[in-house]
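Protein modeling request. Please complete all fields; requests missing the sequence field cannot be processed.
Requester role: graduate student
Desired output: 3D structure, token encoding
Chains: 1
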Amino acid sequence: MTRPQSAIDPTAPYAEFARRLRAAREKCGRSVDYCAAAIAVSAKAWLRYESGERFPRTPEGLRAVAAAVKTTVGRLVD
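Delivered output (78 residues):
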């Protein structure tokens, strides 16, 4: 199922992470639903990552997010 994309608010706390995450997901061709399922969160939660509203709570969660979009943690946060 296709989910609407959330706009990235440039003033959001995690805006740069969100921009990099969305770009990585689009580059690897995975859907929001696929990525959310891969890390066992709802699609709504994943979209909060992509809008810059949220950030993974643990290092393990951040690694799982990176793996879901076939990238490294460094590419998402450095």
